[in-house]
Give the backbone structure.
Amino acid sequence: MSKIGVFPGSFDPLTKGHEAIIRKSLSVFDKIVVAVGVNSSKAYMFSLEKRMSHINELFKNDDQVEVQSFQKLTVDFCKDIGANHIVRGLRDSKDFQYEKPIAHMNFDLAGIDTVFFLTELKYNAISSSIIREIYKNNGSIEQFVTKPHLLV
Ligand code: ADP
C-alpha cells in the first residue's frame, strides 16, 4: 500500500520554503499531493489556475508529486484520496502553536495524523504574505519563489 501525504495550503504563492518541505516529505511518503485550498471568503493574489500550474511546472519531473485543488475539510479531502497523513512545515514556535490544535482536531475527527518538517534555516523568514507585499509594491520576489514569471 502506498503512503500518501497531503500538503495543504493556500500557496499564494508557493515559496522556496514550501518547495523544500515538499522535497523533504518525499523521503517519507510514496506520493505527496499538494492540495491548493479554495476558500470563497478569501481574496487571493494569484489565481488558482496560476498557483496550480506554477507548482505543476516546478515538480514536472517528480512523478511522486501531484497537485490538486480542494474546497472542503482537509481531512475529508484526505479520505477521498486515501491519504492518512497531512504534511505541514514549521518555521518557529508561532507556527507550532497555530498548527497544534488543528492537528489534534484532525486526528480526533478522522484519525489523520500530521507530520511536521522543520523549514531549512535559509528559508525560515520566507512567508507568502510578505512575498505578496513585495510583489504588490513592484519588488523582486525572484530569490524567494522559483520561476515567479509562471504566476502571471
Ligand atoms: P495556509 O494558507 O494554510 O496558512 P500556507 O500556504 O501559507 O498555508 O503554507 C502552507 C504550509 O507551509 C504551512 O504548514 C506553513 O507553516 C508552511 N510554510 C509556510 N512558509 C514556509 C517556509 N518558509 N518554510 C517552511 N514551511 C513553510
